[in-house]
């Protein structure tokens, strides 16, 4: 039975490359045409493949509907939270998770620092979009014309002397973030607070959320915080893998 399932599932990535006829499917699977036909008929009955008028097969609409439904029901916060907790336990600093929704970047999760000095950020509240590291990652992933449109509509408050001054500087920073794959806020929002962030990506490679580690200067310097970047990026990659289905959830292997 497991071999049959394996063969049936092997047909789907083949058809993702484009329509194929019965002979091509049989050759790819290394089976007789009668076996390939039996598998294709079963997949067709479930709407996962479709037989065209030229007798070639392609992926069926039901497959796309299932994929869309699965994506809509994915909760990045639920998936990310255990990883954020472990990161917090490892470094002790405040950990945030943020998403971009309706022209705002919002915190959707937060794990508090174990140190007495706490940050005033709150779940559900917008971040300072022109300076926050998580915002830079989320906006940097937008297509160029969208990045430019967003940047030109924003106000640029001078929170500190290190705040982003205007749209030109912001777009330049977003391009840098896009190239390097991570972002920082080193005193751009509050003089005494530094932050380093990494992106969480979906199966298509697009950034679906961003996570960060933040700490005040009285606890660690900016340079000391930056040494945590590899750990932050590994955590973000682990969340990305689980969210996109590239890595199995522990206990399901």
UniProtKB/TrEMBL annotation:
The keyword Transcription regulation applies. Pfam families: HTH_IclR, IclR_C. Keywords: DNA-binding, Transcription, Transcription regulation. InterPro entries: GAF-like_dom_sf, HTH_MetabolicPath_Reg, Tscrpt_reg_IclR_C, Tscrpt_reg_IclR_N, WH-like_DNA-bd_sf, WH_DNA-bd_sf. It comes from the Bacteria. The keyword Methyltransferase does not apply. Residues 62-245 form the IclR-ED domain. SUPFAM superfamilies: GAF domain-like, Winged helix' DNA-binding domain. SMART domains: HTH_ICLR. Residues 2-61 form the HTH iclR-type domain. PANTHER family: HELIX-TURN-HELIX TRANSCRIPTIONAL REGULATOR, ICLR FAMILY (PTHR30136), HTH-TYPE TRANSCRIPTIONAL REPRESSOR ALLR (PTHR30136:SF24). This is IclR family transcriptional regulator.
């Amino acid at each position: 039975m497991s071999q049959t399932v394996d063969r049936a599932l092997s047909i789907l990535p083949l058809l993702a490359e484009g329509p194929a006829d019965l002979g091509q499917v049989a050759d790819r699977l290394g089976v007789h045409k009668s076996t390939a036909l039996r598998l294709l008929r079963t997949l067709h009955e479930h709407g996962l493949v479709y037989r065209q008028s030229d007798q070639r097969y392609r992926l069926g609409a039901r497959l796309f509907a299932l994929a869309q439904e699965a994506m809509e029901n994915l909760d990045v916060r639920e998936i990310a939270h255990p990883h954020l907790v472990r990161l917090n336990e490892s470094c002790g600093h405040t950990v945030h998770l943020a998403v971009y929704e309706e022209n705002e970047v919002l915190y959707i999760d937060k794990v508090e620092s174990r140190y007495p000095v706490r940050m005033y950020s709150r779940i559900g509240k917008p971040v300072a979009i022109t300076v926050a590291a998580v915002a830079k990652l989320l906006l940097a992933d937008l297509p160029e014309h969208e990045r430019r449109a967003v940047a030109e509509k924003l106000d640029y408050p001078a929170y500190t002397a290190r705040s982003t001054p205007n749209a030109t500087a912001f777009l330049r920073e977003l391009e840098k973030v896009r190239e390097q794959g991570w972002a920082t806020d080193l005193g751009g929002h509050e003089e005494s607070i530094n932050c380093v962030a990494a992106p969480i990506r979906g199966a298509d490679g697009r950034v679906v959320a961003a996570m960060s580690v933040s700490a005040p200067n009285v606890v660690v310097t900016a340079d000391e915080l930056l040494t945590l970047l590899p750990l932050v990026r590994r955590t973000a990659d682990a969340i990305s893998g689980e969210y996109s289905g590239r890595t199995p959830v522990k206990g399901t292997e």
